[in-house]
Specification:
The protein is an alpha+beta fold. Helices cover 23% and strands 23% of the residues. Strands 3, 4, 5, 6, 7, 8, 9 and 10 form an 8-stranded antiparallel beta sheet that branches. The longest helix is centred in the first third of the chain and has 17 residues.
Length: 256
């Protein structure tokens, strides 16, 4: 660890001599540290504070995190922190379950066959935006657009959260004050109700407040369960695609 720390500080000194732009300097240090330690994503634009203990304050996931293969992003979103700053207060939840939707060829996707409507238009745009829609006329679901091909409509459904902060606000929204919090944000509809997510968050850029995702240590591959998606029996052979991912043993997962 000391060797890694010395390398990071060495990089900092060299960059500081070459340029007086702290933002770029800190960003590069964060990327270097991520490659060495394997602890944080190199795609993160972070803010680092060079303390004796070499701690890093990890900030919001940036655009290039989402501009990668959708399956990879769906897996790496596990463990990250979904944030919503609202007038009622800030709520936070660790993402513990996701589903990937791969675009026109994926018969389970809203963009299957290249379908393009006012509802799913955000899927065709820039990656790293919220795609929020209503199901059964009463529940919202939140997705994040992703993928390594510009214009290809792919997204990742956030299926379940482990509450981190703002649990009381979540409980009030859900109408379950005083009850066990295990199912507070388990399932797409419950998640959106607990986090105060509605159509107002549709199309928002999730790389900046008030609705965004913070970085966190990655979940090890052996702790990620890969299985079929929920409620896509209509999708023919695509219903068998193992594109639902969740953290093994986490009690906040909506469906095992």
């Amino acid at each position: 660890m000391n060797q890694h720390r010395n390398f990071v500080f060495g990089v900092a000194k060299k960059l500081a001599r070459k340029r007086n732009r702290a933002k770029n300097c800190l960003s590069t240090i964060t990327r270097s540290f991520g490659r060495i330690e394997g602890g944080f994503d190199g795609s993160l634009l972070g803010k680092a504070y060079l303390l004796d203990t070499a701690f890093f304050e990890i900030m919001i996931l940036q655009r290039d995190f989402y501009e990668r293969d959708t399956i990879t992003v769906a897996k790496e979103l596990l463990g990250k922190i979904l944030m919503h700053e609202s007038v009622e207060g800030t709520t936070e939840g660790k993402i513990v379950e996701t589903e990937a939707y791969r675009g026109p060829e994926d018969q389970a996707a809203h963009s299957s066959g290249g379908r393009r409507t006012p509802r799913n238009e955000v899927m065709y745009g820039e990656k790293g935006h919220a795609y929020v829609y209503l199901i059964y006329g009463m529940y919202f679901c939140v997705n994040i657009t992703a993928g390594n091909m510009l214009g290809k409509p792919e997204a990742i459904l956030i299926r379940a959260l482990e509450p981190v902060a703002g649990e009381k606000i979540m409980a009030i929204r859900r109408g379950v004050i005083g009850r066990e919090i295990r199912n507070l944000a388990g399932g797409p509809g419950r998640l959106c109700t607990a986090m105060g997510i509605t159509k107002a968050q549709n199309k928002l850029d999730v790389t900046k407040p008030p609705f965004y995702i913070k970085n966190a240590p990655p979940v090890k591959s052996e702790e990620i369960v890969e299985t079929t998606r929920v409620g896509v029996d209509y999708a023919g052979e695509w219903k068998h695609s193992p594109w639902r991912f969740y953290i093994k043993g986490n009690k906040y997962v909506s469906k095992k």
